[in-house]
Amino acid sequence: MPELPEVETICRYLRDGTATQPAILNRVIFDAQILWARSLATPLVEEFYRRIRGQSITAINRRGKFILFSLTTDTLLIHLRMSGDLLVEPADLAPLTHHRALINFQDGMRLAFNDPRKFGRIWLVEHPALVIGGLGPEPLDDHFTAADLYERLRSTRRRLKPLLLDQSFLAGLGNIYVDESLHLARLHPLEVSQRVSLEQAIRLWASIRQSLNQAILRNGASIDWVYRGGEFQNYFRAYGRVGQPCPECGTPIQRITVGQRGTHFCPQCQQLMG
Fold first, then answer.
1. Is residue 1 predicted with pLDDT exceeding 80?
2. What are the tens digits of pLDDT across the range 228-245?
3. What is the pLDDT of residues 68-112, one digit of tens each?
4. H-type helices in 20-104, by residue range?
5. Which of the 8 DSSP states describes residue 43?
6. Are 56 and 64 in contact (CB under 8 A)?
7. Model-level pTM?
C-alpha cells in the first residue's frame, strides 16, 4: 500500500493540483535535502544535490507502483512502499517528524517525501530502465491483451496469488487488487497458473482492468492512516471482508495466508480446480 490506483491518483494530484495542494509540474528545483540517508538509493547524496539543482519537472507519470518525475536531464523515481506519501507545502515550514527528503522549488514551495516506516526509496538516474527495466507489463496498457496474460500464465507453474503479486509478471498489483480481481474472476488464489483456461484468463484480464479502473475513478482505497482520500474501500468484494457475505452468493468470505500475505476469497465462488 499504496498500489497502482493510489499511485495513479497521487500522480494526478501532483500534475494537476487539488483544492488544497498546488501542482508541481514545470516547477524549477532550487535545491534538495535528504533527511534520512537510506531513503536515497542512488546516487550518493552530494551527487544527488549537485545533479538535481536547477532541473525542472517536465512530466509526472507512473510505472507499476513507481512515480516517475521526468526532469530536464534526469529522471527522479520514488517508490512509496508501505507508508510513503508526497506532500506539496511551503518550503519555509519546519520539516515534520517523518519527512525523509525535501525537494525545494525556486518559487518557495517544496515536495516533501514523508515515510514513517522508512521503506520508501528515491532514485535519480539518467535512464529510468536502470530501476524499472525488470517490471512486467502494465495491466491497463492498451497493448496488454487477454491473450498476452494467458501466454504468461501458461509459461510458468505458480500459484495465482503470489504470481500476480510478482512485479516482474505484472506491474502495479498488490494485495488488495489481486484479491479483488481474483474474486471477480472467480479464481481461487491458490490455483496453479498453468491450469487456467483461455476463457478464465480472459475473465481474469477483464477483472483486473475493471478492479483497477473502478478504484482509480474513486481515487483508490483508504484502509488506514497511510493513504487517505479514496473511496474504493466501500466497494470491496473480498478484501478485508472476513465473515461478511460474498456479494455473489452470500457465502462468508474467508481469509487464508498465502506467501505470508493475508488473502481473502469466497470458498463457494472461487473453488480450486482438479
1. no
2. 778 999 999 999 999 999
3. 999 999 999 999 998 999 999 999 999 999 999 999 999 999 999
4. 45-52
5. S
6. no
7. 0.95
Residue 29 to residue 27: CA distance in whole angstroms: 7
Q: What whole-number distance in Å separates Cα of residue 251 and Cα of residue 186? A: 13
Residue 223 is predicted with a pLDDT of 76
Contact assessment for residue 13 and residue 21, using Cβ atoms and an 8 Å cutoff: yes
Query: What is the domain class of 146-265 according to CATH?
Result: mainly alpha
Annotated catalytic sites, by residue?
Answer: 2-3, 65, 261
Helix (H) or strand (E) holding 60: strand 57-63
**Of 129, 97, 100, nearest in space to 38 by CA:** 100
- The end-to-end CA distance of the chain, in Å, is 33
pLDDT score, position 274: 67
84 — phi, psi (to 5°)?
A: -75, 155
Count Cα neighbours of 33 within 13 Å in the Cβ-side half-sphere.
14
pLDDT at 145 over 90: yes
* Domain residue spans of the chain: 4-132, 146-265
H or E stretch covering 184? helix 175-185
According to DSSP, residue 12 is labeled: H
What is the pLDDT at residue 19?
Answer: 86
Query: CATH topology for 4-132?
Result: N-terminal domain of MutM-like DNA repair proteins (3.20.190)
Cβ-based neighbours of 78, under 8 Å, separated by 6 or more: 66, 67, 69, 84, 86, 113, 120, 121, 122, 123
